[in-house]
Design goal:
Length: 144
Amino acid sequence: MKIRLVNTPTGFVPETDDDYEVKRKMKVGKVYEATIKEVRNPKFLRLYFSLINIAWEYLTEQQQAFFYNNKESFRKTLEVAAGHFELVYSRSRNEWLEMPKSIAFDAITEQEFSDLFERVKTTLYQQFIPDINKEEFEKELKWY
């Protein structure tokens, strides 16, 4: 079970309605163990996925078909192309493969994620959708 909390002068309180529901189900007086860590900016993560979604819409049907009409495959390919990968050896193919690193909150710092965001945008503009109007794309992204 995960719950996100905000530290206030009177103690920790649930961040969202969903977090409140998790807390509400906990029995009063029962002892719970928690690991406290600061989370990355969830709004920035949503902006990142908006970037991916908007870029996906800019792809032609043929380009989308290349990714088997799978937006997640497109995202992972973008991340690898932007340099966010680790090498993994495939015994069946007898070669090293570039696998995207995790972008989970506990796997990457806010600064690393910010750098990735900018590298992915650059990769998009240079390799995947080079003929688009960047200002129009950025305006569309700001709506999210």
